[in-house]
Amino acid sequence: MLKLAFLNLFRRKSRTFLAVVGIVIGIGAVIALNAVVDGIYNEIDTIIGSFQAIMVMEKGSMDQTLSKLDESLRAKIESVQGVRVVVPEVWILPQTVEGRTLTLSQSSIPATIYGVDISAYRKLRGNGWVGELEKGEMLNSNDKYAVLIGKSLADNMHKFIGSSIKINGQKFRVKGIVSSESELLGNLIIMNIDTAREIGGFPKDKVSSFYVEVIDPAEDRKVAEKINFALGSEVEANTASDFSKTFAGVIKNFRLVALAIALISAFVAAIGILNTMLMSVMERYKEIGTLKATGWTNANIMQMILYESTFIGIIGGILGILFGTALSLCIPAFGIPTLIKLESVLYAFLFAFFVGVVAGLYPAYRASKLDPVEAMRGA
Asked: Does 136 map to a domain?
């Protein structure tokens, strides 16, 4: 019966093809979207995992590039018990890099200027946002027109130690190239904070944020609460766990979008299979009547039609997985990280299988209830 059900799919190749395509597109879109969500989550999780400090920004700011604080707050933060080092930072989106606008040609992740107080940064126990120095030397406080650049930026712009890079029309010398576990930090341009203010038009007495390293990392939550209590009306201090909770909420919303797309895809694919199977049943009235007249039971007829619809779901699921995987592998070329998880692929296949079975239930039931005499007359 399995062989017969499979061969029946090729009686109307065009109709079967369209039903399969509906599932392929739906499954492919779901896999690709989940791969993007998981890829971004993995990148952010990597950043948060290496973040061993407190980030102090302007209250209500979405990120550092939108925050602006008085640098005088540094002394107040340093006076909070448990604080070890306070590093003033300026985050700016450059207008041009090597004459190119914000988004680099081979990446959709924008280059970002990270101006940092070098003398304070050198007191940190870790690397902060900078990452590991892969080549070259670390910046000094007197390096006005020297920069460190992320490895992704260096590769995309073909830069090396000693080469020059023009940012907002100002020429800088590449003193070092830094690598990071996250591609999202691969396009950083690290420079002295005063230089960043100068080329970015940032007020001299302002900063975007403060990177606060605590004496005991286990006490970061308590120290953050102390900072918020002391300066709560002006700033917002967040720990790695705070960022993790916030980002988890954002990812949850993205997953809801993915679920909505999956449900829409399921509906469209199910309608396609339902239409295909109903038309198939109507065209095979005489055949079904003959089978019932020769001893096939209602259960046998229903089983055959369900096999056919399930085969459509399985074929569409397999091809959809291949399509979605290929799409997911192409997306990083645009600078968007992706991560294909085995469970996502398995769920996608089961989803296609389920749609195939459910969409075939009504046509199978209708076929099983045909009167053999009337069916053989072509009624």
From this structure: yes
Asked if 193 and 117 count as a contact pair (C-beta separation under 8 A), the reply is yes
267 and 342 assigned to the same domain: yes
Tell me the C-alpha distance between 304 and 28, whole Å. Answer: 28
Q: Enter the pTM of the model.
A: 0.68
Q: Domain containing 264: what range?
A: 2-43+247-376
Contacts of 372 (CB under 8 A, 6+ apart): 289, 290, 292, 293
Q: Which two tokens stand for residue 79?
A: 């006076």
Q: What is the pLDDT of residues 200-252, one digit of tens each?
A: 999 999 999 999 999 998 888 999 999 999 887 778 898 877 877 777 777 77
Q: In whole angstroms, how large is the CA radius of gyration of the chain?
A: 30
Q: Residue 7, class by beta-carbon neighbours within 10 Å (0-12 exposed, 13-18 middle, 19+ buried)?
A: exposed
| The pair of three-digit structure tokens given for residue 63, joined into one six-digit string | 């990120």
Q: How far apart are CA 303 and CA 282, in angstroms?
A: 17
Residue type, 227: I
Which of 196, 211, 233 is the C-terminal boundary of a domain? 233
Locate 121 and state its tokens: 């940064």
